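FAQ: What does the model actually see?

It sees only this:
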Amino acid sequence: MYRYNKDELKQSLTIEQVYELTADLGGEPIMEGNTFKSRTICHNPAGQGSYKLYYYDNTKLFKCYT
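And it is asked to produce this:
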């Protein structure tokens, strides 16, 4: 059985890697400094959500503003 430390994994990801993953999932992200916004892939089909899903590199967290 593999054991992963979610905090280590989260901290190891670069903003570019998270951006690419979000793009691969259909979020169509737009970079804005040390953050980016994308379509709300958290609860909409790819390409249909509004640009209200933000990723903040300083906290390594997503925030959905819908």
